[in-house]
Amino acid sequence: GQDQLDSRSSPGAAFADVTNDGQFVLYTSAVSGKTELYRVAITGSGPTKKINGPVSGVFGGGLSTARYAPDDSYVVYSVVAEAQTTRELFVADPEGQGSVQQVSVQMADSTGPVYYEISPDSQWIVYRASQDNASTDELYRVRPDGSQQAKLNGPLVAGGGIPWNGWAINSTSDHVVSRPGQNQAGVAELFSVDIATLVVTQLHRPLLSYEDVDYFVISPDGTRVAYSGALVSTANEQLWAVDLDGSDEIQLDGPYVGYIDRNYVFSPDSSRVVYSINPGAGPRKLFVASATAGAISERQVGPPQANSGVDEFATTADGTTAVYRSDELNPSKIELFS
């Protein structure tokens, strides 16, 4: 059935998150005149509770993003709090009990930590912000109680920084992978950092001024990362895989050159990588490669000759079979193949 969760007169409510047990909804509403955070049972029954602490009237008066920890033990949200002028990160009790805890420190830039993630084990909050330098976005980690706050990247060159979509936490909650402009402005490189020890590892050789890492994905088991970019030739892109400690780096793509589409994935068991290549002239083609043996185990699974080629795809748990959409039989019809 359909349940109305908030019937109060206001400029509207915006969905934020649902508890992992599916019992409660987190949402924002401006019913108080400022955008604030509320919790209500997913059935609409029971009381509605405000989660956040006092908020300021700047930046439209309120809260931007919010989410539950994976274990539902706390809520993280970003807001300009009362009597503050910069957006900061806060942790609140999921039932709206007690006081909230500010977990970020005073920002050098008023935009603050809009982008953040919670580790799968709920033990760390990782956020991107211009905390130490108003012109540079960097990564930080902190415990939900506000302790052990520290920077996760190494020193960045002037004009460097970490893109909003250029970092991720692995599934085992012990590493963050990012692609900052650390050694050269305008050149994105790939690094991993141990969240607990803060040891930073560059995952490839130093790059030249015309080289770049443009995308990456971490394996489901959290041990390996696949990444792409113009790392050998600027005429095309290559696909690589490496362990998070920088060992066992291999090139995954073979002799079929072109641009690696940013939709490659690991198989659920982390043993293979499925990727498509856009040659520029001709159809996209789909390939599967061993995540540890690279091009030696490469095999084409997409259309040998097609019109526009492969569109979307998915893989079985062991990566041995790929299902994809293509117009390989009829240029006016998209069909499903395996």
Helix-strand layout with pairing:
Elements: E1 13-18, E2 24-29, E3 36-41, E4 49-50, E5 66-68, E6 75-79, E7 88-92, E8 101-102, E9 115-118, E10 125-129, E11 138-142, E12 150-151, E13 167-169, E14 175-178, E15 191-194, E16 200-202, E17 212-218, E18 224-230, E19 238-243, E20 250-251, E21 259-260, E22 265-266, E23 272-278, E24 285-290, E25 294-300, E26 310-315, E27 322-326, E28 335-337
Antiparallel strand pairs: 1-2, 2-3, 3-4, 5-6, 6-7, 7-8, 9-10, 10-11, 11-12, 13-14, 14-15, 15-16, 17-18, 18-19, 19-20, 21-23, 22-23, 23-24, 24-25, 26-27, 27-28
Describe the structure.
This protein is mostly beta strands. It is built from no helices and 28 strands. Strands 21, 22, 23, 24 and 25 form a 5-stranded antiparallel sheet that branches. Strands 1-2-3-4 form a 4-stranded antiparallel sheet, with no helix packed on it. It has a 4-stranded antiparallel sheet with strand order 5-6-7-8, with no helix packed on it. A hairpin with a 6-residue loop joins β2 (24-29) and β3. The chain is globular, with a radius of gyration of 23 Å.
